[in-house]
Design brief:
single chain, 227 residues, mainly alpha, globular
């Protein structure tokens, strides 16, 4: 590992543990075992180190989405559901890592970093759906004149589902409306693709994601109480 990568790795560990704003450059230099000149040879500032960390997270995101997603021997509805399971798997993994990741990004001016990650995530989700929809149309398993628009709709619906799952934390009474959203989403996308009700399935996977959020939140609350 060269010095540049060592500094990035050390900064990531310190940001994760202490937060971005609470980590001075001097601490990064000390933990990385380099000189001040060595740090400034590679980076102009702590913000520039953060930019490289963001790039690494984006590369990890793209690597995840570059994996095989669907089984070739299944029909379109099952492949569509496999795509959603795959995307939700990423979100669940993100939840498990969030305690550390959030300390990297919770600082004044973090909006740009978060927007960059969210935008790339949305683009990758849309591309997955577009590829699947085009393949389904070519095989005549579905019929649509608007593959781009439907792929965009699928991506937006997915994000709506994830955002709504988080909102159930603040108000458990919204769980019924969350399940209504899942029913609505299943029927909306199925009808846009010319499929039957019940062939698109968001519910089981989404409720698992929502339960993971509650578990993570409860564990975090207990940890804070113990502190």
């Amino acid at each position: 590992m060269d010095l540049k990568d060592k500094i990035i790795q050390t900064a990531t560990e310190l940001f994760t543990k202490n937060g971005f704003e609470n980590t001075p450059i001097e601490e990064i230099i000390r933990k990385a075992g380099c000189s001040k000149g060595g740090f400034y040879h590679h980076f102009k500032s702590k913000d520039e180190v953060l930019e490289h960390i963001i790039d690494n997270l984006l590369n990890e995101l793209m690597t995840y989405f570059d994996q095989p997603v669907v089984s070739d021997d299944t029909d379109f509805p099952e492949q569509f559901n496999q795509v959603y399971d795959f995307i939700t798997g990423y979100k669940i993994n993100q939840l498990e890592d969030w305690k550390g990741i959030k300390n990297v990004f919770i600082f004044s001016g973090n909006e740009r970093a978060l927007r960059t990650l969210n935008r790339k995530f949305t683009e990758l989700v849309k591309d997955l759906y577009l590829q699947l929809i085009l393949q389904g149309s070519e095989k005549e398993e579905i019929t649509t004149d608007y593959p781009e628009e439907i792929a965009e709709l699928c991506a937006r619906q997915v994000l709506w589902i994830y955002d709504s799952a988080i909102k159930t934390l603040k108000d458990p009474n919204t769980l019924d409306s969350y399940e209504t959203l899942l029913d609505f989403s299943e029927k909306l996308i199925a009808r846009q693709l010319g499929l039957k009700d019940g062939q698109i399935k968001y519910k089981d996977c989404s409720l698992e994601y929502q339960k993971k959020i509650i578990m993570m939140y409860s564990a975090n609350e207990k940890e804070q109480e113990n502190d």
